[in-house]
Amino acid sequence: MYKTLRLLFCASVLCLAQGVQAQSIGNSPYSRYGLGELNTNLGNLRTAGMGDVGVSTGNSFQSNTANPALLYYNSITVFDVGVTGRYKTLKNASQSQRDGDANLTYLTLGVPITKRWSSALSLRPYSSVDYNIKNVGSLPNRQEAVVISEYKGEGGISELYFGHGVRIADGLTLGASASYLFGTISQESSSIVADTSISNASLERVAYVERTRYSDFMFRAGANYRKKIADKAYMSAGAVYALGTDLGAKRNSAYERRDLGDGLKGVPMLPDSVESSVNVPPSLTASISYDNGSNLTIATEFMTQDWSDYRNLDGEHELGKSYKIGFGTEFTPNPTAIDSYFKRVTYRGGLRYGQSPYIVNGENIKDMAVTGGATLPIGRGNYFEPPFQLNIMMGYGKRGTTDQGLIAENYFQFGAGVTINSRWFVKRRIE
């Protein structure tokens, strides 16, 4: 039965894989800057529930793509899929609105190659763009003429990740990954001028549209060292360095005349094309953790990335330095309990605080959240077919401020996914 369920589940997920490339995050005004809203959780729902902490927390039953060096700990084949979403309230000094969305977030397949070497293939978002901002005003010298301005953006950049982790010596593992970044970001600004003093005036929207296609490779290197410090006590230290890259970009732009239903009137005007690159800076993530080798893990993590030298295709400076600090823990009361299901559930919690790369009106945009989660085993399984795992997470956070005419986002974050473990290439003696 488990084999049939696995096949049906994998087939249905593959049909939905396009959703990873069409990531939507609900109306997020700050995603209009740079490459959009960056995905800072490079692990899975496990790390998301621990405050995005995962660079030094290896796990045998879930592929930890946050640090390729930790892939070594996957001694069995792992298929992992996750869906996440946000429900948020956006507000400025005088107005507020609610929005939200949910999408397939990652697909990961981890496979052990030898006793010292494991690898993983993953598809996940690198960045997401989704915003819609409207402003109503009037012409400076003609108050009867109302100007409705609208700014919209959608799309994002996806990451196809291929990583490897190898044990070099007792406790020491090294890893490396190569990722192909690809995707299209569409942005437009439009205006409608309605003069109430002119009867039977024909209204139309004039829009400036940009569609930018990005593609290139990114490389990361990781390391982790785990040492026993006492009976049932281990310390781990891990780090990941992402090399900077010049991300190839091709932008097509034009002016368009549209009716109020956004139908195109005539052909696009003044079409233009620019082909260049934008610089993605290097980043460094470091983490230390404690575990008892059985059912308790406590970890903290720090990440930094300097976007100060980033320039868009027009040569404009948009971003600054970013960092993130996280703390997380997980606990399983009794992984082998047979008298209580809830003793076999893994519970998680975490905190994160950081500064995003966005600088708007002189303000650095901060982001903070408290998170939680759990892994619920499904079925008892056996040596050849370990049980399914249902992973859930949730969190509450705040980003931005209403000072300086800016927008604050209060959001509830949620996620759910399934991990399927299986032992491949093992010949059974009795069927």
From TrEMBL:
Residues 1-22 form the signal peptide. Keywords: Signal. It comes from Pontibacter indicus. This is Long-chain fatty acid transport protein.
